[in-house]
Amino acid sequence: MELIGGEYQVQGVKLKEVAEQFGTPTYVYDAEKIKKQYEVISQAFGDVNLKIKFAAKSLTNISILKLLRSYGSDLDCVSIQEVYLGLMAGYQPQEILYTPNGVALEEIEEAVALGVKINLDSLSILAQFGEKFGGSIPIGLRLNPHVMAGGNKKISTGHAGSKFGISVYHLDKILDTVKEYGIDVRGLHIHTGSDILDAEVFLTVANILFDVAKKFENLGFLDLGSGFKVAYKEGDITTDMEEVGSKISAAFKSFCAGYGKDLELWFEPGKFLVSEAGYLLTQANVVKETPATVFVGVNSGLNHLIRPMMYDAYHEMINLSNSGGKERIYTVVGYICETDTFGSDRKMAEVNIGDLIAVKNAGAYCFSMASNYNSRFRPCEVLIHNGEARLIRERETMEDLTRKQVILDF
User: Fold this and answer.
1) Residue 277: which of 60, 73, 87, 35 has the closest Cα?
2) How far apart are alpha carbons 305 and 259 in whole angstroms?
């Protein structure tokens, strides 16, 4: 987003005009920013055999999936439904990694039938899979490295108390199960969480993975997940991708030399690719002064952007309608019948009823976590691509809200 001539723009498209054309609330995504973020990772790991697998759960719109495939991305899926969306977006089965958690074997069997790459994360499922398929279907294993990292405990997934992955302390049990059923393990995977700043954390996890990998003879890839930190406000420290790329690449090449062959290095970025590309456009319905604060009530809420309430996440907000106005302090809240706060005590250009408020970093885990709470509609989605704003999802209607209900007569 750039401020040009008093107007906030994306690729030369005025966000106020997007709001006028498509209404509010509306999610807007900047294709150029997504491409730039993809190139940052690609260049950081330019001297290894790299595969980037977009974490579909962060933003599953089929047009976004297609866009990322056009940049060269593969896909990381955590449910069979995401797998089907990936196939609909044109990904080949071998370009899709399916890493479920807590699902029944039947869903995994469905993924096997589709031909996607399978990644298992529990000993019990590993044994069930081995009993069913033996060594006929190559798999990957998700491991838990017992490393606590990430910006919030709810998004830290590699610590001892996490439900994700098979503990590295259970390596003997893994090897026994693999041997018992003749399971063909082709890859190892670790993901420790989100918003990780320190390159040394990635290196620590990588070294744990390298040690485990020495126990498997036929590996084709090592997957370090993701967790790269992006900026949420001016001055934020972010992951130094050049440093991470340099240190991990050197360590990876050293491991491959000792292992005896060059493996593929995989990453699964989601937030890093799409978070900063997204904006949620809303309109101020209410400006309400109380003895404690001044509230700005917008026509959206935690049903469209739950991250502030769920993770205490910071999302910067900008008054698109008054770019040069005097700054005042506001608490911005939504229209949900619940404590529903986007941000407290925020400086913004003076807000009047009807002003357009843009919420930044709305590309990742915003629409994908949206709901119909309070029977509100989910917004439309718009992609700005090559300087043109294009609708990629229609706004919901009452027909959508009631489509699957079975209404009884009494």
Assistant:
1) 35
2) 45
Q: Report the alpha-carbon distance of residue 249 to residue 231 in Å, rounded.
A: 24
Beta strands in 67-200 (DSSP E): 74-77, 96-98, 117-120, 139-144, 166-167, 185-189
Per-residue pLDDT of the chain (410 residues; tens, 9 = 90+): 999 999 999 999 999 999 999 999 999 999 999 999 999 999 999 889 999 999 999 999 999 999 999 999 999 999 999 999 999 999 999 999 999 999 999 999 999 999 999 999 999 999 999 999 999 999 999 999 887 544 444 444 444 566 888 999 999 999 999 999 999 999 999 987 667 777 888 888 899 999 999 999 999 999 999 889 999 988 888 889 999 999 999 999 999 999 999 999 999 999 999 999 999 999 999 999 999 999 999 999 999 999 999 999 999 999 999 998 999 999 999 999 999 999 999 999 999 999 999 999 999 999 999 999 999 999 999 999 999 999 999 999 999 999 999 999 99
Other residues' Cβ atoms within 10 Å of the Cβ of residue 59: 28
- Residue whose structure tokens are 């309608």: 321
Q: What is the CATH topology of the domain spanning 31-271?
A: TIM Barrel (3.20.20)
**Residues in the chain, total:** 410
Rg over alpha carbons for the chain, rounded to the nearest Å, is 23
Give per-residue burial for 109-125: e unless 16+ CB within 10 Å, then b. bbbbeeebbbbbbbbeb
Q: Encoding tokens for residue 214?
A: 């020495």
Locate CATH 2.40.37.10 in the chain.
Answer: 2-23+278-362+364-402
Q: Which residues are catalytic?
A: 337
Q: Give one DSSP letter per residue of 211-255, joined into a string.
A: HHHTT-SS--EEE----B---SSTT-----HHHHHHHHHHHHHHH
Give kind and range of the element (H or E) at residue 106: helix 105-114
CATH 3.20.20.10-classified regions of the chain: 31-271
CATH class of 2-23+278-362+364-402: mainly beta
